[in-house]
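Q: Can I see a sequence and its folded structure?
A: Here is a first one.
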Amino acid sequence: MSNGDEKVCGTVRDALTAHKMDFQEADIQHATKFTVKSGAQSASINVYNSGKLHVEGKISELKTWLDHLKESIEKGTGGPVALLPAEIEKFPQTLRERVPDCDDVVLWFFQESLRCYKADSVAGAAFMLGAASEKAILLLIDAYATAIVDEGHRNSFLSRVNNRMISKKYDEFKASYAGCKSKPTDQLLAQDLTQLLDGAFNFYRHTRNAVGHPQIVPDLEKGVILANLGQFIIYIDRIYMLMRHFQKNGVVV
């Protein structure tokens, strides 16, 4: 008998088997871990005894596939298939549906990134995706600063982030958020939020910089960029969920 919820484990097992995925199954504390490999890529999906699902691994096409699997199981629609051209075309619509109040600048750069990808300009896609990510992070930092309850703390934070590079702004935000006394308790936001933001933000920034600073020829894989176009939707959704939390509950540091 599996440590994870038997019914959900069966659904995950059937989906991985149906799509001929190379996977191993092992019990961990309070969960069953399905470790999946695809070439050099590796990621895992954990099924907890509560029925909750959690995906782990470095950002990759495989991890994005598992993220889609998790969402489809949670919605009761079964397992995903490989990303098809028609599904890629729906990325902007999917982003709008998940984040109706998404900033127009973020949407524009995301759509431009998709156009570059479809035109086989991997470098252009990476650069535009990095720009979209930077705008979203700036919105997050602004929302955080505005929501700081204590005026002195708010002014101190603003003095540390104003007129600084995006990487430094993000570091200051991350350091301040680590000591925040009003973090969300919702499991989706609280669990691995910093890791998700860190991984995605740094990947988008590094790939954009690799294109924007012409020192060497960038080493960019088209499949990885596609995976990150899909991951971007989840990334923006989490950012906006966190912004709404700040706006509703305030920030106590």
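Q: Show me another, different protein.
A: A second, unrelated one:
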Amino acid sequence: MSSISSGGADWEQRYQSAGDGFLFGMEPNEYLASKKELFQTGQTAICLADGEGRNSVWLAGLGLKVTAVEFSVTALQKARRLAAARQVCVDFQHGDMLDLQWPDSSEHNRYDWVIAVFIQYADPEQRKKQFADMLNLCKPGGHILLLGYNPQQLMHGTGGPSSLDHLYTPELLREAFSACKLIELQEYEKVLQEGMRHCGMSSVIGMVAQKISDAG
């Protein structure tokens, strides 16, 4: 595997350390859930760095055809158990989105929805690949939903990266997704209660963007 990061091993340890528990809980992220009316039965979606499956399983429960990509084997095992308990089908794939060979070109322009929730383990150079891949995966006319912490989160210390250059700003996202029509781009503060890792007042930025051309 040709990768530009070794951070995946750290995440495997974190998921193992939780035992049978779920690091981020079993319910969908609050921003994703707030967009429920946008999702339609039969649409395709891919959840990137999906962890223990809370978001992909929820989308599958709405009737979407969902693919979930995750590096941690332990997280994938928990995600499969969650899907089985909720009686939904998700195509769980073991993969590293920072692998230089990921994704295969056959995945380009395939998905109605590309979902990226708190994937801020990437440094600025790695993030360029993340964002480019998200655009490539999305169909023209499809949508990208992204949620992350903004710089104000460093004052809260309730989750997310400790490095300023891993955080999102409106200017960063507008530039990265300039090939898209921004449906929503908002910064807000909210108390998050998402498992063991996201707890307390948090400062986040959410984006929904529509791909208006073949940016790949």
